[in-house]
Sequence to fold (392 residues):
Amino acid sequence: MTDTDPRAARLRGFGTTVFAEMSALAASTGAVNLGQGFPDTDGPSEVLEAAVAAIRDGANQYPPGDGIPSLRRAIAEHQRRFYGLDLDPDSEVLVTTGATEAIAAALLGLLDPGDEVVVFEPMFDTYAAGVAMAGAVVVPVLLAPDAQGRFRFDPDELTAAVGPRTRVILLNTPHNPTGKVFTADEMDLLAETARRHDLIVITDEVYEHLVFPGHRHVPMATLPGMAERTLTISSAGKTFRTTGWKIGWVTGPTPLVTAVRTAKQYLTYVSGAPFQPAIAVGLALDDAFFAGLGPDMADRAARLGEGLRAAGLVVHPPEATYFTTVDVRPLRPDGDGHAFCLELPERCGVVAIPNAVFYERPEHGRHLVRFACCKTDSVLDEAVERLAALGR
Ligand code: PMP
Fold:
């Protein structure tokens, strides 16, 4: 081996993910880890017990590649119950190894080299890597805070981003890392753009049930003429606080789901057998369970947001998700969010993620930092108390 980088050209520029780097920093410094978005309490006991029972009952060999029938039926029923969408569980639903695999398999299954994918930035970090692995090209459209601190895009930038090579709009709503819920008007404009240019929309809706009071999640597939051109991706991880189980799914018209399945069968072939019946139990939980998730997370975000504001940071109030984005410039006039995150464990014993890693054009997010609020009250209070040291 020579000492040159052995990585394929399309993966150069993708180093270790920042989540691994910052989680290691949290572990080595004993800091409160508000970097990676994972809850620190278990999800509903019915769901956990169903997985234990499934292991005891022998659900330990390869399940069907599409996912077990009871989970596919539960996913279809969930889409009907919450959004009025009608899906055939046999051909229009595919279980994946987390939303992560669903995103990668959708991109690999649909894109040819040189195809263009319009993506809003900041974007969840697997999107750019998935597009690159498919040999395709990301065309970013910026989400920037307006005068009220709400992240918005410029419709003219969207129009300019769509060209003859555009194949897919890759959307994420509710949005990580900004906590934005795309509004009905924004969704209409996106749908209209997709219909006019005959584009496929891949929509990552993993935070669909973590929407704060006063905001509403509109699934792209529910808009006129969109069900036939939309692949909807979601995951059990956020809704049931089972991020380590890696059960996700894709729903959409048969030809699009078939494209995803074609890639998925050669990536993982099948996904976690004993977790699938457990998530089928979770998806059938009553309305009160799902209705409680958003308000609960909103309270946590408010608790953390108050502490971040008191520490002197500018908070962009989230409308959903596990995350709060802040502007570090009041505390760090040079606006270097990455340096801020590297220093934070030593300065006050807290770990966060620099938003620059979520941008194709990192200069737009250089001054922004993301904190996770999906933690117990005592952990959030401890973090807030530590953050107060920044303001002193
Ligand atoms: N999409 C978004 C927007 C996410 O935030 C995450 C998890 N952080 C994922 C996808 C990945 O989901 P999963 O763990 O189910 O692979």
Q: What stands out?
A: Residues 49 and 278 are 8 Å apart (CA to CA). The pocket of 4'-deoxy-4'-aminopyridoxal-5'-phosphate is lined by residues 37, 98-100, 124, 172, 176, 204, 206, 235, 237, 243, 246, 248 (CB under 6 Å). DSSP finds 13 helices and 15 strands in the chain. The two ends are 52 Å apart (CA to CA).
